[in-house]
Design brief:
Helix 1 packs parallel to helix 16. The chain is mainly alpha-helical. The relative contact order is 0.18. 67% of the residues lie in helices and 3% in strands. It folds into two domains: 375 residues, Sodium/glucose cotransporter (Up-down Bundle); 55 residues, no CATH class.
């Protein structure tokens, strides 16, 4: 059967499973809608957390970044996994003991202020919408290639599916759907990785295979081969980094503390019965996440090596079918700069970095039939444009794996994107219905009215998310990295100080969150979105040499300083609030906490 038929079968089966689970586990109360009734087992919550955590950025984009960045891509591995450890050990048990539904709920009560709650709601919405933009782009990429529909249709289809089970089931439906999605995405990620590892090195363990010798009997190590190919094409050695130590540190730190401030991950620890269960589920999730994260570098090495060997110096007419298929999506392109009919892949951008010009002209084709690149960069000899987000999805095709494996990866990519999108939509809807309407605008709203408001909020949220999917601001992992920066700049200091510093008051927390989020937004707008310039500013213009993805660490530090200074200059929080902080940190009886 063709890839398209296999994709329809596998995607159709997984979608039917998600919908069936949502119908079976539909929420009938606000507690079930917000925190799944608070009775999820640690293992199920660990699997759901892993699926919620491993978004389209982890499944689709992370290995693509590592493939093109090499050693520098390790910042994503270190930052995201290290951040989860930070969250599990430093914040999750204490937040669970506090016993609130959402992060704005914690901040509103801990800082005894409706203003603090409102600022937290704004930050939660901003972080969640930035993050969900990456997920919807991932959905559109999968649909546009494997189901051969335009990206807009793919995004709308994904919106309908995720809206159905998020609105009907709430956190209860999302939790058990995410358990199924974890099984789908990890199977889909590992199967091709194992196939290709055996194919290239004879080693069935990808984590070991990419450091092994290649299977041609030459005794050459795969990484040495990739280093050689990279230097021949003008790139630095794959195993050497080019980023500055300052930027590597900043990005890693921003991703770590951003992870610990992500509202859709934090809320997962409110779905278990006890603090002990929160710790257990964190351990399960870390183990399950590690399976994918330790495999991603291997997938990156396999994909980059196969890409170079299958296209460089090849005549366009002789290129394999996978190249033409992906070229039709607009995510891969070639322009014959020297008119020799050969694809030249080398260091340098094939296109100009101009944010206002599309990479491809959707109508015109070159003399070889390739989709024509409109903003050619003639300063480099590189003729190939490759969107980083295609590397994991195209990897099985490049390696000539069976069609069912190719379709399986498509189903896994959709599972990863939709699982995280559902968690984010729930954060958005609960922030509006519970934290904004119930706690601020209309405190006497009935439970039924609050549930209706939550579902209507999810409907509006998924519509906005769909817009971002159709008009994406960048490749998946870059957008998601910015969401982590926003979370680091806003939530992390307020949560940490709220748990561990009794003297922290509402004035300090509010000022810190506002200043932190504004610093991150302004930097992101100037250096990532380029709103103030016709062309995007170059890396030489970054403050302190820190990229937009890493600036969240600087904004977080500013937040901490502002919060502490203003807190010390204003009155201490009420005595009852300080007692709450003391109670959160007391370990005795923690296992019996059920509220």
């Amino acid at each position: 059967m063709s890839v398209q038929i296999w994709t329809y079968i596998l995607v159709g089966l997984t979608f039917a499973l998600y919908i069936a689970i949502a119908i079976w586990s539909r929420a009938s109360s606000t507690k079930e809608f917000y925190v799944a009734g608070g009775g999820v087992s640690p293992l199920a919550n660990g699997m759901a957390t892993a699926a919620d955590w491993m978004s389209a950025a982890s499944f689709i984009s992370m290995a693509g970044i590592i493939a093109f960045s090499g050693y520098d891509g390790a910042v994503y591995l270190m930052g995201w996994t290290g951040g989860y450890v930070l969250l599990a050990l430093l914040l999750a048990p204490y937040l669970r003991k506090f016993g609130k539904f959402t992060v704005p709920d914690f901040i509103g009560d801990r800082y005894y202020s409706k203003t603090a709650r409102s600022v937290a709601v704004f930050c939660a919405l901003l972080v969640s919408f930035t993050y969900v933009a990456g997920q919807m782009r991932g959905v559109g990429i999968v649909f546009s290639r494997f189901l051969e529909v335009d990206i807009n249709t793919g995004v709308i289809t994904g919106m309908i599916i995720v809206l159905f089970y998020a609105v009907l089931g709430g956190m209860k439906g999302i939790t058990y759907t995410q358990v199924a999605q974890y099984c789908v995405l990890i199977f889909a990620f590992m199967v091709p990785a194992i196939f290709i590892s055996i194919q290239m090195t004879g080693n069935p363990v990808p984590q070991l295979g990419f450091g092994d010798t290649i299977a041609d009997g030459s005794g050459t190590y795969l990484l040495d081969k990739l280093d050689g190919l990279s230097t021949e094409l003008g790139f630095s050695e794959y195993t050497n980094g080019s980023k500055s130590i300052v930027d590597v540190f900043a990005i890693t730190l921003a991703l770590m503390v951003g992870t610990a401030g992500l509202p859709h991950v934090i809320v997962r620890f409110f779905t278990v019965k006890r603090v002990k269960d929160a710790r257990k589920s964190a351990g399960y999730a870390l183990l399950l996440i590690a399976i994918l994260y330790t495999t991603a570098p291997a997938v990156a090495v396999f994909a980059k090596t196969n890409l170079i060997e299958s296209v460089h110096n090849k005549q366009y007419e002789e290129l394999p079918l996978w190249f033409k298929n992906w070229e039709n999506t607009g995510l891969l392109g070639w322009i014959d700069k020297n008119e020799d009919g050969q694809v030249q892949y080398a260091n340098g951008h094939a296109v100009e970095r101009n944010k206002n010009k599309p990479v491809f002209d959707g109508k015109n084709r070159g003399k070889y039939g390739e989709r024509k690149i409109t903003n050619v960069n003639t300063a480099t000899r590189n003729e190939l444009f490759v969107d980083r987000d295609i590397m994991v999805l195209a990897n099985p095709e490049i390696a000539n794996l069976p069609n069912w494996v190719i379709a399986l990866v498509a189903a896994g990519g959709l599972a990863a994107a939709l699982s995280t999108a559902a968690g984010l939509l729930l954060v958005i809807s609960s922030s509006v219905s519970h934290d904004l309407i119930k706690k601020i605008i209309k405190p006497n709203i009935s439970e039924k009215g609050e549930l209706i408001a939550a579902r209507l909020s999810a409907l509006v949220a998924v519509s906005i998310a769909g817009y971002f999917g159709i008009n994406p601001p960048g490749f998946v992992a870059a957008v998601v990295a910015l969401a982590f920066g926003l979370a680091a700049a806003s939530f992390f200091p307020a949560i940490v100080l709220g748990i561990f510093y009794k003297r922290m008051n509402k004035e300090g927390a509010i000022a810190g969150m506002v200043v932190g989020i504004l610093c991150m937004l302004l930097y992101m707008i100037k250096y990532k979105l380029g709103w103030f310039d016709e062309t995007l500013p170059s890396s030489s213009e970054w403050w302190f040499g820190i990229s937009p993805e890493g600036f969240g660490a600087v904004a977080m530090a500013i937040n901490f300083v502002i919060s502490l200074v203003i807190s010390e200059c204003t009155s201490a929080p009420p005595k009852e609030v300080q007692e709450i902080v003391e109670n959160i940190r007391i370990p005795s009886g923690a296992e019996e906490a059920t509220h």
